[in-house]
Amino acid sequence: MHRIVQKCVLRQTMIWTLVTVTLLTGLFPEDVRAMVAPPLQATTNSIAEPHRTADLQKIQTVLESKIVRQRLEDFGLTPEEINTRLAKLSDDQLHQLATKVDALIPAGDGLGIVIALLVIAILAIILIYLLNHRIIITKGDSAK
Predict the structure, then answer these.
(1) Which residues of 72-87 are buried (b: 16+ CB within 10 A; e: fewer)?
(2) How far is residue 41's CA from residue 48's CA, in Å, rounded to a whole number?
(3) Engineered SS bond to 42: which of 31, 47, 60, 69, CB 3.0-4.6 Å?
(4) Distance, CA of 50 to CA of 53 (rounded, Å)
(5) Nearest-angstrom CA–CA distance, 58 and 102
(6) pLDDT tens-place values along the chain, 144 residues long
(7) CA distance 133 to 131
(8) pTM of the full structure
């Protein structure tokens, strides 16, 4: 009988410990961000050149955003000054800037949200169809 009580107390202690740890972990999450590791830097210019072009293209895409452009104009920078400053950056600096650009728009461009809403709508229609529910809209006085 004593062993059964010990097992029950041990089980209750373990359960409440796990509940407490899970609750504390959920209430105070760490500030972490997941990112794809950047590719290793190439030592030759012929291999590094496509990376520089891709990084420049990524930065230019963000700079074309109205919000970013307006903010840079508020700081007094013209598009020509921005382009000259980008040209002066080394390959490593340009790559660092391109990888940090994603943090400017963490939610993306909104395409993901539109796709998610479409998928949810399609799933709802399929569910209604599979359950043989019909939505009938009638004209007339519905409150009697």
Answers:
(1) eeeeeeeeeebeeebe
(2) 7
(3) 47
(4) 5
(5) 9
(6) 677 777 788 888 889 999 998 888 888 767 666 667 766 554 444 455 677 888 888 888 877 777 777 888 888 888 888 888 888 888 888 888 888 876 665 555 667 778 888 988 888 888 787 777 666 778 876 555
(7) 5
(8) 0.38
Helix/strand/coil (H, E, C) string of the chain?
CHHHHHHHHHHHHHHHHHHHHHHHHHHCCCCCCCCCCCCCCCCCHHHHHHHHHHHHHHHHHHHCCHHHHHHHHHCCCCHHHHHHHHHHCCHHHHHHHHHHHHHCCCCCCCHHHHHHHHHHHHHHHHHHHHCCCCCCCCCCCCCC
| Calpha distance 30→63 (Å, rounded) | 31
Q: Which residue has the tokens 């399609």?
A: 122
CB 97 within 8 A of CB 55: yes
Domain extents for the chain?
Answer: 49-130
